[in-house]
Protein backbone atom coordinates (compact mmCIF):
# COMPACT_ATOMS: atom_id res chain seq x y z
CA UNK A 1 0.00 0.00 0.00
CA UNK A 2 2.90 2.39 0.53
CA UNK A 3 2.90 5.41 2.83
CA UNK A 4 -0.44 7.16 2.41
CA UNK A 5 -2.41 9.53 4.56
CA UNK A 6 -4.44 8.06 7.40
CA UNK A 7 -7.71 8.54 5.49
CA UNK A 8 -6.42 6.82 2.35
CA UNK A 9 -4.98 3.97 4.40
CA UNK A 10 -8.35 3.46 6.11
CA UNK A 11 -10.11 3.44 2.73
CA UNK A 12 -7.72 0.75 1.48
CA UNK A 13 -8.11 -1.40 4.59
CA UNK A 14 -11.92 -0.98 4.64
CA UNK A 15 -12.18 -2.44 1.15
CA UNK A 16 -10.15 -5.56 2.03
CA UNK A 17 -10.47 -6.33 5.76
CA UNK A 18 -12.55 -5.83 8.90
CA UNK A 19 -12.17 -6.51 12.61
CA UNK A 20 -13.54 -5.04 15.82
CA UNK A 21 -12.13 -1.54 16.55
CA UNK A 22 -10.08 -1.67 13.32
CA UNK A 23 -10.28 2.11 12.78
CA UNK A 24 -9.06 2.91 16.28
CA UNK A 25 -6.23 0.35 16.10
CA UNK A 26 -5.19 1.53 12.64
CA UNK A 27 -5.12 5.17 13.82
CA UNK A 28 -2.99 4.22 16.84
CA UNK A 29 -0.60 2.26 14.62
CA UNK A 30 -0.24 5.08 12.09
CA UNK A 31 0.30 7.68 14.84
CA UNK A 32 3.09 5.61 16.42
CA UNK A 33 4.76 4.34 13.23
CA UNK A 34 8.01 6.28 12.74
CA UNK A 35 8.11 5.68 8.97
CA UNK A 36 4.46 6.81 8.60
CA UNK A 37 5.16 10.01 10.54
CA UNK A 38 8.21 10.86 8.43
CA UNK A 39 6.44 10.13 5.16
CA UNK A 40 3.29 12.07 6.04
CA UNK A 41 4.64 14.91 8.16
CA UNK A 42 3.66 18.44 7.33
CA UNK A 43 6.67 20.22 5.92
CA UNK A 44 7.98 23.46 7.36
CA UNK A 45 7.25 25.39 10.48
CA UNK A 46 3.80 26.52 11.45
CA UNK A 47 3.01 30.06 10.48
CA UNK A 48 3.04 32.67 13.21
CA UNK A 49 0.13 34.78 14.26
CA UNK A 50 -0.73 37.92 12.32
CA UNK A 51 0.73 40.99 13.92
CA UNK A 52 -0.21 44.63 13.63
CA UNK A 53 2.44 46.59 11.74
CA UNK A 54 2.79 50.11 13.06
CA UNK A 55 3.25 52.91 10.59
CA UNK A 56 6.86 53.95 10.12
CA UNK A 57 7.69 57.27 11.76
CA UNK A 58 11.05 57.78 10.04
CA UNK A 59 12.55 56.96 6.63
CA UNK A 60 14.17 53.51 6.39
CA UNK A 61 12.86 52.53 9.81
CA UNK A 62 10.61 49.79 8.39
CA UNK A 63 10.96 48.00 5.05
CA UNK A 64 9.28 45.17 3.17
CA UNK A 65 11.33 42.73 1.08
CA UNK A 66 10.22 40.26 -1.57
CA UNK A 67 11.50 38.65 -4.74
CA UNK A 68 10.23 38.79 -8.28
CA UNK A 69 11.45 35.67 -10.08
CA UNK A 70 10.95 34.08 -13.47
CA UNK A 71 12.14 37.12 -15.40
CA UNK A 72 13.84 36.80 -18.77
CA UNK A 73 17.60 36.95 -18.18
CA UNK A 74 19.04 40.28 -19.18
CA UNK A 75 21.93 42.68 -18.82
CA UNK A 76 25.58 41.79 -18.95
CA UNK A 77 25.18 39.74 -15.74
CA UNK A 78 22.11 37.84 -17.07
CA UNK A 79 19.96 38.78 -14.07
CA UNK A 80 16.71 36.80 -13.93
CA UNK A 81 15.19 38.08 -10.66
CA UNK A 82 14.78 41.24 -8.62
CA UNK A 83 14.90 41.83 -4.91
CA UNK A 84 12.17 44.40 -4.26
CA UNK A 85 12.53 46.60 -1.19
CA UNK A 86 9.75 49.00 -0.21
CA UNK A 87 10.52 51.71 2.34
CA UNK A 88 7.27 52.03 4.30
CA UNK A 89 7.58 55.68 5.38
CA UNK A 90 7.72 57.20 1.89
CA UNK A 91 6.45 54.11 0.03
CA UNK A 92 9.50 54.37 -2.24
CA UNK A 93 10.76 51.18 -3.85
CA UNK A 94 14.14 49.85 -4.87
CA UNK A 95 14.58 47.02 -7.32
CA UNK A 96 17.92 45.24 -6.97
CA UNK A 97 18.72 42.91 -9.87
CA UNK A 98 19.82 39.45 -8.79
CA UNK A 99 19.82 35.81 -9.83
CA UNK A 100 17.18 33.26 -8.84
CA UNK A 101 20.04 30.93 -7.90
CA UNK A 102 21.54 33.42 -5.39
CA UNK A 103 21.93 32.06 -1.88
CA UNK A 104 20.80 33.75 1.32
CA UNK A 105 24.38 34.98 1.76
CA UNK A 106 24.39 36.50 -1.75
CA UNK A 107 21.13 38.27 -0.92
CA UNK A 108 22.52 39.50 2.40
CA UNK A 109 25.51 40.99 0.57
CA UNK A 110 23.22 42.70 -1.95
CA UNK A 111 21.17 44.08 0.93
CA UNK A 112 24.30 45.29 2.72
CA UNK A 113 25.78 46.96 -0.36
CA UNK A 114 22.57 48.51 -1.71
CA UNK A 115 20.59 49.37 1.42
CA UNK A 116 22.55 49.33 4.67
CA UNK A 117 25.59 51.13 3.25
CA UNK A 118 23.44 53.97 1.88
CA UNK A 119 20.35 54.11 4.14
CA UNK A 120 21.40 52.53 7.43
CA UNK A 121 20.05 49.49 9.24
CA UNK A 122 16.24 49.27 9.27
CA UNK A 123 14.59 48.75 12.66
CA UNK A 124 11.99 46.37 11.17
CA UNK A 125 12.32 44.12 8.10
CA UNK A 126 9.12 42.47 6.92
CA UNK A 127 9.69 39.45 4.73
CA UNK A 128 7.67 36.42 3.67
CA UNK A 129 8.78 32.88 4.34
CA UNK A 130 10.84 32.69 1.16
CA UNK A 131 12.73 29.38 0.86
CA UNK A 132 15.96 31.30 0.30
CA UNK A 133 15.86 32.26 3.97
CA UNK A 134 13.83 29.52 5.61
CA UNK A 135 16.20 26.86 4.29
CA UNK A 136 19.39 28.55 5.53
CA UNK A 137 18.40 30.50 8.64
Produce a short descriptive summary.
The chain has helices spanning 6-14, 22-32, 34-40, 104-119, 131-134; strands spanning 62-68, 81-87, 92-98, 124-127. The chain is an alpha+beta fold and 137 residues long. The radius of gyration is 24 Å and the shape is elongated.
Structure description:
- With 137 residues, this protein is α+β, with helices and mostly antiparallel strands.
- It folds into two domains: 6-40, no CATH class; 62-134, Ribonuclease H-like superfamily/Ribonuclease H (Nucleotidyltransferase, domain 5, 2-Layer Sandwich), CATH 3.30.420.
- It has five helices and four strands, in the order H-H-H-E-E-E-H-E-H.
- The protein has helices spanning 6-14, 22-32, 34-40, 104-119, 131-134; strands spanning 62-68, 81-87, 92-98, 124-127.
- A four-stranded mixed sheet has the order 3-2-1-4, with helices on one face.
- It starts with 5 loop residues before the first helix and ends with a helix.
- The mean pLDDT is 84.
Q: Oligomeric state of the chains?
A: single chain
**CATH fold assignment of the largest domain:** Nucleotidyltransferase, domain 5
**CATH architecture descriptor of the largest domain:** 2-Layer Sandwich
Number of helices: 5
Order of helices and strands: HHHEEEHEH
Computed structural class: alpha+beta
Number of domains: 2
Whole-angstrom Rg: 24 Å
Main sheet, how many strands, which sense, barrel? 4 strands, mixed
What CATH first level of the largest domain would be assigned? Alpha Beta
Strand content: 15-25%
Label the overall shape: elongated
Portion of residues within helices: 25-40%
Low-confidence stretches: none
Give, in spatial order, the strands making up the sheet with the most strands.
3-2-1-4
